[in-house]
Amino acid sequence: MTVSARWNGEEIARSDDTVVVEGNHYFPPASVARSALVPSEKTTVCSWKGTAQYHSVNAGGAINQDAAWYYPAPKEKAASIKDRIAFGGGVEIVEE
């Protein structure tokens, strides 16, 4: 199954190799349009996944603040999502 992420009229990620954790598709870094990611200072902590780092999404001439996140050094139970990127904040995930 191919999964894509779209926001503001643009496809920002596409892969047939996502990992689903807690309902979120985590995309391999190479499948995400790097021009769509803007570094953010935001971090959050999950008790079992570890510390997430965020990006804002730049697509269609607009910025979606802190709508993408990844775990650069996840805890052992979440090792399968290391460096993979997930989306929220209204980014549409489409399973094809």
Automatic annotation (TrEMBL):
List, for all copies, the residue spans of the domain called DUF427.
Answer: 3-87
Q: What's the short name of a Pfam family annotated to this entry?
A: NTP_transf_9
Q: Which InterPro entries match?
A: DUF427, DUF427_sf
Domain of life per record = Bacteria
What PANTHER family does this protein map onto? DUF427 DOMAIN PROTEIN (AFU_ORTHOLOGUE AFUA_3G02220) (PTHR34310:SF5)
Q: What is this protein called?
A: DUF427 domain-containing protein
Supply the source organism's classification. Answer: Bacteria, Pseudomonadati, Pseudomonadota, Alphaproteobacteria, Sphingomonadales
